[in-house]
Sequence to fold (682 residues):
Amino acid sequence: METDTKLLRRGGDTKSQRGTEESPFVKWLLITIALGFVVVFLLLPLVNVFWQSLAHGLAVYWESLVDSDTRSAIKLTLLIAGISVPLNLLFGVAAAWAIAKFNFKGKPMLISLIDLPFAISPVVAGLMFVVLFGRQGFFGEWLDTHEIKIIFAVPGMVLATVFITFPFVARELIPVMEATGTEQEQAALTLGASGWQTFWHVTLPSVRWGLLYGVILCNARAMGEFGAVSVVSGHITGQTDTMPLRVEKLYQSASAASMTAAFAVASLLALLALITLVVKTFLEWRTQREFALAQRSVSETPLLAPSIQVPSRQQ
Amino acid sequence: MSIQLSNVSKQFGDVVAVNNVSFTVQEGELLGLLGPSGGGKTTVLRMIAGLELPTSGDILVRGKRVNDIAVQQRNIGFVFQNYALFKTMNVFKNVAFGLKIKKWKKADIKNRVAELLELLGLDGLEKRFPHQLSGGQRQRVAIARALAPQPSVLLLDEPFGAVDAKIRQELREWLVRLHSDLNVTTLFVTHDQEEAMEVSNRIVIFSRGHLEQIGSPREVYEEPSNEFVARFIGVMNVLDTEVRGGVARVGELEFPAPERRDTRQLRIGFRPFAVQVSPDPTQYRYPGIIRHTFFLGILMRVEIELPSGLIIRARMTKEEYAQLGLHEGQNVSILIRSYRILRGEDEPLSPEITAVDKGPGAYGADI
Fold:
């Protein structure tokens, strides 16, 4: 009997430990590694950006931000995001709607194609547009004779950004829309609502958090995109520099003042990232609730016992 | 509102969901569409609503063809199987939706919604969201929402499928009362024959896209038009027999079939109520032993095993059971009072044949 007790004890030396759990040493080792990695590779650089940008005081920081070329870079970034995010909002909703609500041939193809921008290197994406619209490109001659500038101009940068940020909204919406199904829309139709009224009053509200989440991610990427935009921008200071391109240019010029300026602009982008992160976390929580609500079956146990009585009509 | 379907068919790709169905719904009727799943009943309901378009045939409402009229213009109230409540809207907004779309005045909407919520016993729940309601409450919100724009016909798809048994019973009675209060033409789909029998004025029975029979609950029970209906409505003992010497036999059971040739297969069916059980093992021709009894509320189901191993199901009231002093394991004898010859799923049934027991040793049944 004594050996039995000993065996039992050996297994249960920590009270709350389950049979399948690793030893505390392994647990803490893994946590330390993960945490250490986050601190060294993510947190330290981020803190450093803010540190460097403020190294010469707030006045210098402010001055480097109100520099006219930097200001135009900020404006251009806002402009590009301002055009491409609404466009992709529209495309994303349309694509998600088509995929979630209809069955058609080539649907799996469309789903894979939506992911294409994630799979392609941004530089290649930029080059695609140069090949299409550049001077030696496919439409180059025609564009030249009609004096339309796309490459090395804002239109090309918008195109590249739209391409890169295309998947964000659609990918967020598809699962929510699929889980919601089409019954609510059909119910709206039987109540006399037109297609547009149904979309506006029923479909859109039921996916609003997922939609916002997609838009936030889309916006963050639109403002932060470097590779694709860099290829089509032509790097014309004060004209085709976005914030990420401006950061690189300032940094490359290597003077102490422009270094600080580079970090100042970078700190704005980092701030955008932090805000996105906070909003994203909140929206993620809301989207999950939305998704759970959409999926929840109606046959769950009643919260309240219903009292059923039809009051007899008084004649 | 009288609704008429004439030769309506619906195909989904190669699948024929509804096959050449014709029937008429009377103004103010409470009609049940009954059938096993995949029978086509929900498709029929959705075609009447305009949510599906018939592949061929016409749907007429008050004599007017509505095939090309959009769902929005048909003025129907539809209650979906899972209710399809707008989950981002509270109860008030759900019920008010159809009225808002129809551009009712705010004050009118308020009055109408209040009236409906009271009628359906939902007052006080205006601010609740669908996920905060019980199954039965959701069901009634869905009905209130469908009724709000004063539809000329109310369509319900498996209205009681998603609630538990006790609430289902309450809701059935409640639907009958609501219908008699509002007198709106109502069609509902169900796969539960008991539910259809209890609630409907008339029942339309579907199977595999065909309309099998239409009639009052009593008609379809007592005069089933074919074997499918006979077996689907209520319980039936079904025996496959073989004719030898003018008698259809299975085990020790014999049914006279003088005009049938030898070796012919005959399928015999009889209701459990048609089985008379006697505690005296010699009173009727066929002796047997009670294997199981099932308590079904006021009814008892008794399973009797004959010496050949055949199991015969009988039904009687609890009182009868007590009076006869029956119990499991008891030796009894049985009489099959009436039976039918079944001729295959789609064939018309033979008239019911009444049997006369001449006591042990004689023929079991006589015409």
